[in-house]
What we know:
Elements: E1 2-5, H1 10-21, E2 28-32, H2 39-43, E3 47-50, H3 59-63, E4 68-71, H4 79-96, E5 100-106, H5 118-130, E6 133-139, H6 152-157, E7 159-162, H7 174-186, E8 194-196, H8 204-215, E9 220-223, H9 230-240, H10 250-255, H11 262-270, H12 273-277
Helix pairs in contact: 1-7, 4-5, 8-11
Amino acid sequence: MIVVSAASGAFGLRVIDRLLAGGREGRVVAAVRTPDKVAHLAARGVEVRHGDYDRPDTLATAFAGAERLLLISSPELDPERRVRQHRAAVDAAHVAGVGVVVYTSFLGADTEPGGLTAAHHATERAVRDSGVAHTLLRHPFYSEAFLHPGLQSAVDSGELLDGTGGRALNTASRDDLAEAAARVLTEDHHTGRAYDFTGALWTYTALADSLTRATGTQVVARPRAERLPGAQGWLEDQIRAGALERRTDDLDTVLGHPATSLDEAVAGLFGGVRADRG
């Protein structure tokens, strides 16, 4: 039996889709905070259980009988609360006798104990200290944070504003990461491994070229001098510092094929534009 925790989120639902497509009907459990919100999963033959990271008493029951548990990291932003939630889940996995815990961590969590990776660093340590067999899946930023329908404005104007200083990004799509998680949950040679997942590196200049090919409209990347406010500005600071330029083959290796390319991702968003414009 495979249990997917925090299964009602966009990533968890994709993993369950992959598991069901692979013939795991009747062997998948969704552990969620609000079971009523995933009635559609029950209709597809997924057992739905109440499992709330903030209510540790629900977790051991939610994880009972799991040969593999996908422990999806909490969306909580406060690091202390997030670590508390994760430790409760790890403790429950130990009590429930889970065979293997597969934890969705973040790139750099093995070496960076503070900042963005603080909660992941502490959780990885808790997983290792628990004595439960495990696999660590360190994710990059999702490609969807950058590649989305809002790029239509760049196509309309012919100009893609770039605040990255020309540096590269190592993002990966949710679909690729969900497929990788499903493979790790259903294959036997991943236990004890830690994977550093990245997609192929890409730049905003390459993105402009991909938009041009997908839409038939010339799009050119133009540097943007001013810093964006809030989280987007912080993220661009990280990119300009080269923090997203690490590249590994781990994702391709686990998938058994190359991860989604920039051209493929953009074509998925704008593939019909050229034909529609005739």
